[in-house]
Amino acid sequence: MNAYMTHGTVDFLTTLKDKHPSIDFFFMTSGAKGLTYYEGTGKSIFVAGRTYEILLQNGAIQKEGFVVMNNIPVTDDGRPVFEDRFKQRGKEVDKMPGFQAFRLLKPDNGNTYVVFTQWKSESDFDNWKNSANFQKAHKDSGTKPPAYFADRPFVTTYHMMREDET
Predict the structure, then answer these.
(1) pTM of the model
(2) Record: fold of 2-41+49-165
(3) Which end of the chain is more exposed for a tag (fewer CB within 10 A), N or C?
(4) Spatial distance between the Cα atoms of 119 and 61, rounded to a whole number of angstroms
(5) Contacts of 5 (CB under 8 A, 6+ apart)
(6) 74-83: pLDDT as tens digits
C-alpha cells in the first residue's frame, strides 16, 4: 500500500475530489499552505507530488483532527536500522487519549521518511509530548542524533479540513 501527497493552494487541491471522485482524499492546511493525502495502490494521480510505501500503520485516518509529520532524512546505510527501530517500537503513542492514526512512510524517491501521526486535537498531541509515555518512547533519543540521520529531522503540522470546507 502506498501513500501519496502533494502541496498546493487549498482552492486547487479541493478540485481534485471532483476530478477523482473514487479516491478518498484527506485535505489539510498549515497556515496558507494546503496538502492533499490519499492511500492506495498503483501510480499516483498527482503530477507533482511524493509517493511513499506504508511500512507500518495503525488506526484509520479521520477527516477531522490534527496531523504531525516528523520528516526524518535517513542515510542509505541506515535505512534497515531506522525501519527496524520502528518495527520494535512499544506503541505507546497508540494508547494515548486522542490518538487516531499512525503511519511510517518510506519515500519512493529521496531519503526523507515521514512518521505520520493524527490526533483528535492539537491539545491531545501536546498531552502526548508531555507524557511519561512520550519520555519512555523516546528514551534512547539522547542529545546526539543517531548515525543514520542524513540531516536534521523537521516537523510539519496540519489541521484537517472539514468536509464543509472542501
Answers:
(1) 0.90
(2) Alpha-Beta Plaits (3.30.70)
(3) N
(4) 9
(5) 35, 36, 37, 46, 49, 50, 52
(6) 999 999 999 9
Q: Which backbone phi and psi does 38 adopt, to 5 degrees?
A: -150, 165
Q: State the cell numbers at 156.
A: 510539519
Q: Which residue has the cell 519512493?
A: 108
* CA–CA dist 67, 21 (Å, integer): 23
Task: Find the Cα–Cα–Cα–Cα dihedral 16, 113, 54, 18, rounded to 10°.
Answer: 0
Between CA 102 and CA 68 the distance in angstroms is: 10
Cα 39 from Cα 60, distance rounded (Å): 11
Q: What is the grid cell recorded at 25?
A: 482524499
- What residues contact residue 122 under an 8 Å CB cut-off, 6+ apart? 66, 157, 159
CA-based R_g, the chain, Å: 16
Q: What SS3 string covers the chain?
A: CEEEEEEECHHHHHCHHHHCCCCCCEEEEECCEEEEEEEECCCCCCCCCEEEEEEEEEECCCCCCEEEEEEEEECCCCHHHHHHHHHCCCCCHHHCCCEEEEEEEEECCCCEEEEEEEECCHHHHHHHHCCHHHHHHCCCCCCCCCCCECCCCEEEEEEECCHHHC
